[in-house]
Queue: 2 jobs
Job 1
Amino acid sequence: MPASDSLVWVTAVTVVIWAGIFVYCMGLDRRIRRLEGEE
Amino acid sequence: MTKPRLRTTAQWLLGIWLLVVAIAAFHWAPTARGFKGESSRIVFFHVPQAWVAVLAFCVNLVASLRYLRGRDPLDDARAAAAARLGLVFSVLATITGSLFAHVMWGSFWNWDPREVSIVILLLIYAAYFALREAITDDERRASLAAAYAILAFVTMPFLIFIVPRIYFSLHPDTLINTRGAMDMESRMFQVLMGSLVGFTGLFSWLYTLDVRLAKIRLARRRREEV
């Protein structure tokens, strides 16, 4: 596989991992905000 | 702007920032000469992870000292949150480091002083959690963990900064070398700095989430006690 193709794949994997972390943290943040509201 | 809205804006900005860093790391920054293939690009992730681990252990120390002074359970929770993140980012730095080692030196593990010292540091902070899990009494656990955190931190500069410089290491020259000069191509340097800022922001976000959760837990426990 040419280097540029593999770089695109690595970028895609990195972006997906980061998007996963981001979505998880946003969800957790929303949940914590709700719990803080209940307190 | 209200606090939650400001927080959400900062989170989205961080999300976009790290997305841009990820793309720039692979498609805008050049590769460094003398490194196999694209292996030098790992610096944009490995160095910020190691930096965040050091930062987290510093926060752990400060929170532990604050606990010993004020005996506030929230400081204990802050110390635990920081150590947890320090441990996670140390593991990530070790993994990215061994991926680089595999490409450059043909093996994931080479018994290099930097590899060994980070694993020792990992074990030291893993023991911090073993200690926390072993004690059931909250106050006793917090006091002993804080005292242990101070001792653990003393080893950190030795293992991270001194040992790898005393012994011969395969590890590439650090960013700030013995001449005190930044020997990095400007685009690489910009991406690295961007990544350092982004990872620091990510640490701060994760840390804040953990502390906010601990605050809720403590408030509930106090209510149950009353």
Job 2
Amino acid sequence: MFKGKKVIALGERDGVPGPLIAECLEAAGAEIVFQKTECFV
Amino acid sequence: MDLENQAAIKSIADDVGTENLMVVLGMPGEGLRLAVETLTTGDPSWAGPLAGVSLGLPVFHILEEQVRSQVPEDIYADKLLMMEMVLDLPQIENDLADLRTVG
């Protein structure tokens, strides 16, 4: 699903943070092109 | 969705195209709905760089089954299992199903 794909990892402080998403998806073969953790208010 | 992030994602989509690009989110609730809308049909608040821009990106949540099943088991257990217990997973999957039906 993620092999060879460019992925934007957009997390949230009250959910799963961006770096965590990025780390997991890189392990699944994704190329992370952007990762950030938003703060929803 | 954060205006700076909208600008960054628009720039990436312009640079690499949308064909091979996908988004994986980590937020629950209203933040999830707003992010999905912004990244598919455009910023619903009409305040950011993605206002009126339909990127149509494939959008997923890191904890939905089809995504989390792609993560190696040891990494999932170490990094995501706790989040799965904290967040309302059925609600997230229901919200995504609704949003995909609308979209």
